[in-house]
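Render this sequence as a predicted structure.
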Amino acid sequence: MKALRFLVLVAVWFLLVAQASPTPTPQPNANIVLDTAAGGANTKITVNGTQFLAHEDVTLYWDSPNKVAAKVTTDRNGAFTTTVTPYPGDRVELHNLCANVGPPTPCANFTLQGPPSPTPVESPSPNSSASSTPSASQSSSPVALPVNSSGSGGLDVIMRPPLVFLPIIGLLGLLAALAYWVLMKVDRDRPPVLPSATVVHRSARPDLAPMHSRTPLPGAQPPPPPSEPPPAPPTTPEQPPY
């Protein structure tokens, strides 16, 4: 009888313990996202968490649970937003920011970068410092501006279409004027050629014309040709006196 009573008490105790200890609720696919994936030791990182349980306390840590980054509580939608910084003293390498929920445990990657290496500054030599400091006389003297030798003024504009034809037309006109001047100069120096003239003498009265050129009247006999004069008597040379 006592053994049966003991067994009943043990069964009741197990029922009470089972009701008192809550059954673990399965964790949904929680997720955390970082707004930047790399930065220095003082970089402020914005963390956005989603799909957590509503009104759940979440602890964010770097690499291991003892490196706590922040503690947040989710809203009624199971989301949160907070800002963290890299854990002090961590090495320059890839680190994981995780939440203490799960499994599975949501994590995000962040690459810790070292400080930028200083740029070496060259010490100026005495010669360079002396040459870089202009004198007062040099600064007061007028500075000649460089002339752009690549362009040729308006010549390049004239040598492009459609104005390229203007120089050609002007050159042709100049050649035509020169040829005209040469022709006029040659014609001016050449003596004028007078036309040949023929003089014809005509008489209003043919009867007064010379005998050999008179025209005989119709029915009249031409005059006989003139007779030759009689030969002259021979002349006797005079005898010289004795």
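Summary. The chain has a mean pLDDT of 75. The beta strands are 31-34, 38-39, 45-50, 57-62, 68-73, 80-84, 94-99, 107-112.
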